[in-house]
Automatic annotation (TrEMBL):
Keyword Protein transport set for record: no
InterPro entries linked: Haemerythrin_Fe_BS, Hemerythrin, Hemerythrin-like, Hemerythrin_metal-bd
NCBIfam families xref list: bact_hemeryth, hemeryth_dom
Organism of origin: Helicobacter colisuis
Chain coiled-coil ranges: none
Protein name: Hemerythrin family protein
Domain Hemerythrin-like: 14-123
Amino acid sequence: MLPSWSKELSVHNDAIDEQHKHLFDIAGRAYALINKKATKEEIVTILKELLNYTQEHFRDEEDYMESICYPRLEQHREKHREIIRDMTNSVMQIRNVDDLKEKLAVIAKKWLLEHIIREDMQIEKFRRSVCQITSSMPKKSSNEAEYEEKKIKYTCQCKGKIHLVPSTLHNKIQKEKALFNCKVCKAIIQFLEM
């Protein structure tokens, strides 16, 4: 039996929580195919959905970890790569429908859900500790907070993607002609003039 998503698994980021819920849903549907007569096409379809959505989710989750300065980002990113690599390798080694069902169960339960329950909860633990520290700090003046929060919009070749760049980094890009690439499309980000 697969666990189901609950509030205890929240990372207190609405977008990431919604993605986790969706992953639990896909994993549940995938796991349900184990005990029913399913065609190879049905299984391959759900595997593709699971793999594609997992890749999208991992990119968004890594952006979120970066935004909160998560100290174990690189280790977590490597776990994501490992999961995608293992998923891809497992799918390529499938010989028949029963083998396909078995691999699907492992992917759904072991790699994804256990990853969310174990690893992603470490992100939430870190976020809570940072929130406790910052809530006990003296409040900043509105000028300090405004300066600190100012982000400049940049674009890349990803459709509809906006990069929010801190003003200090924006100044470096403008003054020093520094170049930064989008992690997804690898194109150099460009200042979005209003």
